[in-house]
Amino acid sequence: RGISREPGSRWTEPGCRSCTCQGGRVLCDTVSCSVPCSHPLPAPAGGCCPTCTGCLHEGVARAEGDVFSPSDGNCTVCVCLAGNVSCLSPECPPGSCPSPSLADCCSCNPEKCNFRGRTYAHGARFSLDGDDCTTCVCQGGEVECSFTPCPMLDCPQHQRHLGPGQCCSTCRDPPAPAGCFLDDNGVEFPVGQIWSPGDPCELCICQADGSVSCQRTDCVETCPYPIRIPGQCCPDCSAGCTYMGRIFSNNETFPSALDPCLSCICLVR
User: Fold this and answer.
1) Bridge partners, 84 (sequence order)
2) How many angstroms separate the CA atoms of 128 and 134, rounded?
3) DSSP letters along 188-236, please?
4) How many other CB atoms are there within 10 angstroms of residue 190's CB atom?
C-alpha cells in the first residue's frame, strides 16, 4: 500500500486485520480478541476489541462502578465492576406471584417452571436431554432456550471443523506446505530446493514451512588482476590474470600496453 515496513513489524489494517512483515511478504489475519469479562462494552471508534472499562447490560452502557436495577428485577440491585455485572436479590420466603407488588420486594417469589415433566426453580439453567448444545433458563414460570455460545476462533473459515457430537467448531491444523511459491514469476520450488535468483553470489533454499531463506556469499579478492568467469560468484585468482581487457595464463609474459619497452608477466601469488 505504498508504505515500507521493517521485517518483523506488526500493524493493524482497516477491518480489524493484524498484519506482519515476514521475509518480504505481508501476512494478515483477523484480529483475535480475548475478552476477560462477561458484559464488555463494544469496541471504541477505531478499535477492534470490546473493552472491559464499563458494562453493557440489557442494551444499556454502564460506567465503571455504576449501581442500578435491571428492568425486570423487582428490588434487585446490580453493580458494574471491570466489565462484569453482579446482581443481588432479596431472599424471600416461598410463595406464588399472581400479582407482584413493586412496593413490597418480598410479597412473592417468581413462579417455578414445569418443563417436560420436571420442575425448575426461577433462574435455574439446564440443558435439554441429549442436547448439550442448547442451554435453557427458567424465568418466572417461562422457559427460554438458546444455543450454547461458542468461543471465537483465530483461524480462517476453511480451516474450521465441526465434529460429530460437537456444539462448536474447532480449528484444523493447516496443511503442510508442499513447496515455496514465488508470486513474482509464478515458479514453485519443492521443499529443500536450492537456487540462485539471478545473482550468482546469492543462494536461496525452500524451507519446510513454505518460506524462502536466502544468503549472500561475500568474496575476498586476494589479487589485483583476477579473472571473472560469467555465472561464477567470486573472481578467480588461480587461473591467470586479467590485464587491460585481456586474459593471460600463469607465468605468461607479454608487453605492457602502456610502455612497449616494459615486459610484464602474470604471476599467481
Assistant:
1) 81
2) 6
3) EEETT-EE-SS-TTEEEEE-TTS-EEEEEPPP---SSSPBPPTT-SS-B
4) 9
- Rounded to whole angstroms, the Cα distance separating 218 from 220 reads 7
Strands 17-22 and 10-13: antiparallel
- Kindly report the pTM of this predicted structure: 0.32
Question: Tell me: the pLDDT tens digits for 36-72?
Answer: 899 999 888 878 888 999 999 988 999 999 998 887 7
Backbone angles phi, psi at 51, to 5 degrees: -120, 150
Name the DSSP letter for residue 41: B
Of 95-99, 104-108, 123-127, 208-212, where does mean pLDDT reach its minimum? 95-99
Pairing assessment for the beta strands 77-81 and 67-68 based on DSSP bridges? antiparallel
Average pLDDT value for residue range 151-175: 82
- Domains, the chain, ranges and CATH? 9-88 (no CATH), 114-144 (no CATH), 180-216 (2.10.70), 224-268 (no CATH)
**C-alpha cell of 203?**
543462494
Give 205-212's long-range contacts (Cβ < 8 A, gap of 24+). Answer: 206/179, 206/180, 207/180, 208/176, 208/177, 209/177, 210/177, 210/179, 210/180, 210/181, 211/22, 211/23, 211/180, 212/23, 212/180, 212/182
Confidence of residue 184 (pLDDT cuts 50, 70, 90): low
